[in-house]
């Protein structure tokens, strides 16, 4: 294994950042390569600890000559966001200087080649340089995993619709409970930047059956536990073995995906009709009927009519809910995968 430190300057004098990159060299010229990163949203740590638990397994495989394809790993992909604290609270989702989501506005290349990266814009800010660096590290890999987490939720994947159902083996290997299939544009999120160059090539030159591109949502923000880290590391390892990056016949044993898979237009974003305290009546992973009580908003405490119930607009599966227990009118607090298309469908990306 080779460890390198990528350094890049900040937006003010005397400020710079470092990005640690681990690289394993494969022994086979025909095996697929893999790129894995975590904490692009810097406060989302389940993927970070999963990579920490994965590394000993990869070092053991390397020592035994079982790393067949090249593997590049960035365990903490956003040192810029990791340094952003406001009154003691980490703000790792948006760059404070530009107000831009760290998982938006990545460069979209016309071919899977680092040489296709355009020069940075004049006076580009540090978040732009970070995104160019991450695209340069990841481009050309057959497998790209971007590890995130939700507020509170089950483990699930975002997958480009073009890669499904070919990626069912990956969902099964990772043991996720749901898959959301997206199409179109997603604000140039990292996942879109990873699949976009392959979609520009003729199918005979870059068959999509060999591609794995996904945003992995490892449960919720607070689910940073050793048992989950080990479970998630085993899932990533199984995926690498299943797709031939690592030689391990036992780990590559076929599994069946039995979770929920649905296009993104079936996701219902359940919002608050009034500001107030949130009383949830369902947990992620539950199936509900149409009209089921999902939450109660206490908007005028103490009054006879001081609360209002939120009901399921259709039958479906509760994917996530927010971790906070208060909000404003219009705030989305639950993602429900409906059995039918939503009356208010979204495409590409569900949230800012």
Automatic annotation (TrEMBL):
The keyword Metal-binding applies. GO terms for molecular function: hydrolase activity. Its cofactor is Zn(2+). InterPro entries: AstE_AspA_cat, N-alpha-Ac-DABA_deacetylase. Keywords: Hydrolase, Metal-binding, Zinc. Residues 32-195 form the Succinylglutamate desuccinylase/Aspartoacylase catalytic domain. Its EC number is 3.5.1.-. It comes from the Bacteria. This is Succinylglutamate desuccinylase/aspartoacylase family protein. It comes from Mesorhizobium marinum.
């Amino acid at each position: 294994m080779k460890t390198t430190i990528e350094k890049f300057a900040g937006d003010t004098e005397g400020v710079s950042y470092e990005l640690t990159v681990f690289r394993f060299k494969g022994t086979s010229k025909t095996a697929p390569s893999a790129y894995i990163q975590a904490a692009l949203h810097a406060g989302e740590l389940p993927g970070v600890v999963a990579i920490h638990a994965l590394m000993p397994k990869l070092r053991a495989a390397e020592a035994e000559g079982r790393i067949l394809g090249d593997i590049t790993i960035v365990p903490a992909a956003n040192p810029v966001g990791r340094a952003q604290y406001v009154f003691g609270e980490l703000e790792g989702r948006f760059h404070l200087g530009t107000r831009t989501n760290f998982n938006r506005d990545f460069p979209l290349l016309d071919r899977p080649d680092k040489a296709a990266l355009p020069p940075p814009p004049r006076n580009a800010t540090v978040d732009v340089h970070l995104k160019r660096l991450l695209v340069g590290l990841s481009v050309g890999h057959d497998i790209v995993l971007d590890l995130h987490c939700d507020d509170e939720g089950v483990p699930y994947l975002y997958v480009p619709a073009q890669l499904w159902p070919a990626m069912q083996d990956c969902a099964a290997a990772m043991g996720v409970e749901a898959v959301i299939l997206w199409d179109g544009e997603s604000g140039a999120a990292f996942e879109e930047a990873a699949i976009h160059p392959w979609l520009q090539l003729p199918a005979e030159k870059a068959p999509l059956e060999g591609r794995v591109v996904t945003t992995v949502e490892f449960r919720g923000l607070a689910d940073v536990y050793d048992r989950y880290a080990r479970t998630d590391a085993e899932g990533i390892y199984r995926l690498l073995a299943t797709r031939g990056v690592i030689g391990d016949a036992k780990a590559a044993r076929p599994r069946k995906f039995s979770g929920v898979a649905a296009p993104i237009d079936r996701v219902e974003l359940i919002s608050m009709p009034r500001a107030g305290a949130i009383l949830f009546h369902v947990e992620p992973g539950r199936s509900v009927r149409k009209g089921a009580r999902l939450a109660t908003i206490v908007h005028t405490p103490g009054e006879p009519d001081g609360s209002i119930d939120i009901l399921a607009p259709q039958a479906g599966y509760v994917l996530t809910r927010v971790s906070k227990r208060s909000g404003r009118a219009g705030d989305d607090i639950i993602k429900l995968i409906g059995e039918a298309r939503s009356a208010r469908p979204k495409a590409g990306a569900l949230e800012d």
